[in-house]
Specification:
Blueprint: E1 15-17, E2 24-26, E3 34-47, E4 50-63, E5 69-80, E6 86-90, E7 109-111, H1 115-120, H2 133-137, H3 149-158, H4 160-167, H5 171-179, H6 181-196, H7 204-216, H8 224-227, H9 232-259, H10 263-270, E8 277-279, E9 284-287, H11 291-301, E10 317-324, E11 327-335, E12 340-345, H12 355-366, H13 376-384, H14 389-396, H15 404-418
Antiparallel strand pairs: 1-2, 3-4, 4-5, 5-6, 6-7, 8-9, 9-10, 10-11, 11-12
Helix pairs in contact: 3-4, 5-6, 6-7, 7-9, 9-11
Length: 419
């Protein structure tokens, strides 16, 4: 405490009032005998027609039973002319990651502005202030309305739009447009039209976002029909959904465009299976016969079957779409090597009530597929383990020069097998 007074109380409250200096205090239960606190504050004044902000650092050292030792140093000065140009004079700072690293014995000299000085200038301002007449002229009313003083003064002196809103006492709009300069550039003409039509903007953030979406959709933002909606929230959600659908369509078309590069390879690999379809009278399971269909299936069912080429160009699997009354139910992955269903999932990879029926339908109908439907991987597997010892011998001697006798036996053997 500043006065150093001590007393004992039985009250277990989190806040109290000092009986000596009547200061409102927050109780902290600790065994520490001493502590230190540091803060910054600013003073606004004018000097020779220039706006001056003087930033001070104040440190207080406390010890139990003693008065606080308080020290105060001026660390920075911001100068601003009537055109909003700013220069900073400050003490030198040492290297380090902390903000309080000033060389207190250094002179206050002209220095390059940085985030540390800007952060210090954002601390509270003493109420007794002096402001140059140009700032009062441009709409300043003595309050900062949640905006940093230097930021507000510079905007008022350099941007006539901020000056207009300040004079209209639309401080919430000023705060939003200072924080979002892109919105100010996009929405200013629409903002003026809304004012002329006496439209009350209750939520400036949502309204500015709505105007930016209208621009993205190519709408006329000079028309009061669009910029002055009766129900801002409903119109904002409607146009947002349109933009989401538009971007989703563009992403799908881009994925299809990239996937179509593999269409010929897909047809060469899977064309022998085209036309496969199974049904039990209710569920219809048909093969996806193009890369485009794979992408659309993945988008519709919100899973990864259309992402990349893992499924469409995999020689050991076929992808089916299970539908009821032309409505997608589940997507089926059938393995040609295992000759069974290995995956079957519905929307967002969740199983539906028809899950077991679809798997049983596909597995039962594929039992009778001819051997020519086997994958190339399975054929290679058979070729690696020949059934006849002589064929193993031929495989082991692959790449070695063959004699005429061996060639004769080889041809005779296959003539015998052909019988």
């Amino acid at each position: 405490m500043d006065c150093g007074h001590t007393w004992t109380t039985d009250d277990d409250a989190d806040k109290c009032v000092c009986p000596k200096c009547k200061a409102k205090l927050e109780v902290q239960r600790t065994k520490r005998q001493k502590t230190m606190s540091s803060t910054y504050f600013s003073v606004l004044t004018e000097r020779k027609g220039l706006q001056l902000m003087r930033a001070y650092q104040m440190k207080a050292y406390y010890r139990k039973g003693q008065k606080a030792d308080i020290y105060c140093w001026e660390v920075a000065r911001y100068w601003m002319n009537e055109k909003g140009k700013v220069e900073v004079m400050a003490r030198k700072r040492t290297m380090g990651i902390y903000m309080d690293t000033f060389c207190y014995d250094s002179d206050i000299e002209l220095r390059k502005d940085n985030t540390t000085y800007q952060h210090i200038a954002s601390f509270p301002v003493c109420p007794d202030m002096k402001v140059i007449p140009q700032i009062w002229r441009n709409g300043f009313d003595g309050a900062f309305h949640g905006i940093e003083p230097l930021t507000l003064f510079k905007a008022m002196l350099t941007d006539h739009r901020i000056e207009t809103m300040m004079k209209q006492c639309r401080y919430g709009h000023v705060r939003h447009f200072i924080d979002h300069p892109r919105h100010l550039e996009t929405c200013w003409n629409a903002y003026k039209i809304a004012n002329r039509n006496h439209y009350l903007i209750t939520d400036i953030g949502k309204w500015a976002d709505y105007i930016c979406m209208l621009v993205e959709m190519g709408k006329d933002i000079r028309s009061p029909h669009y910029i002055c909606p009766d129900n801002l929230e409903a119109e904002h959600d409607r146009i947002s959904e349109k933009i989401r659908a538009k971007k989703e369509k563009e992403r799908t078309e881009e994925e299809i465009r990239k996937a179509l590069k593999n269409e010929d390879k897909f047809k060469e690999m899977k064309s022998r299976f085209f036309g496969l379809m199974f049904t039990d009278g209710n569920i219809v399971v048909r093969m996806l016969e193009s890369v485009r269909e794979h992408v659309l299936e993945g988008k519709a069912m919100h899973h990864c079957v259309g992402s990349g080429t893992h499924y469409s160009l995999n020689p050991d699997c076929i992808i089916f779409s299970a539908r009821i009354a032309e409505q997608r139910v589940e997507t089926v992955e059938f393995s040609l090597e295992q000759m069974k269903v290995v995956q079957c999932h519905g929307l967002q990879n969740k199983d539906t009530e028809h899950h077991a029926d679809i798997i049983n339908l596909v597995n039962s109908k594929t039992v009778s597929l001819p051997l020519s439907f086997m994958s190339r991987g399975a054929e290679k597997k058979v070729a690696k383990k020949p059934s006849f010892p002589y064929l193993r011998c031929l495989q082991n001697n692959k790449g070695q020069p063959k004699s005429k006798g061996l060639s004769f036996i080889h041809k005779s053997f296959f003539l015998f097998l052909g019988r």
